[in-house]
Amino acid sequence: MRIYTVDSFTDQFFKGNPAGVCLLDNPAPDAWMQALAAEMRHSETAFLLGGEAGEPYSLRWFTPATEVALCGHATLATAPVLYSTGTAPETLKFATKSGILAVTRDETGLITMDFPAKPLEETDPRRA
Questions:
Q1: For this structure, is 122 an active site residue?
Q2: Single GO molecular-function term (predicted)?
Q3: What is the rounded average pLDDT for all residues in the chain?
Q4: Where does the pLDDT of residue 51 fall: very low under 50, low under 70, confident under 90, or very high at 90 and above?
Q5: Got the DSSP string for 45-111?
Q6: Which of 39, 44, 67, 107 is catalytic?
Q7: What is the pLDDT of residues 27-48, one digit of tens each?
């Protein structure tokens, strides 16, 4: 297991939005991941497992208090950690509770994310 702190949305230390990234060697119990996220004290900590033989990585996110179904900045934080290994494909696929998410790095190093979008719903502003 390896644990990182990554600042998303910046190229400077101690700026942006920090997230924990935990690369798991084996599946971990939910209670253990929750406890580690609480100790990290970031708004979210990402837990990553797998990704062998072209299969999507399993990705989950925990706040210090609960698991969440989707987290953009912690997903973005996970990508450079994987790219730094030198073995990750340019397009990363993550299996999550929100479906399959894709993250791509272009030739300039820019990382983009493809996340699911919910359909728009009409709302009565008087009820908001």
A1: no
A2: isomerase activity
A3: 93
A4: confident
A5: EEEEEE-GGGPPEEEEEE-SS-EES--HHHHHHHHHHHHTTS-S-SEEEEEETTEEEEEEE-TT--E
A6: 44
A7: 999 999 999 999 999 999 999 9
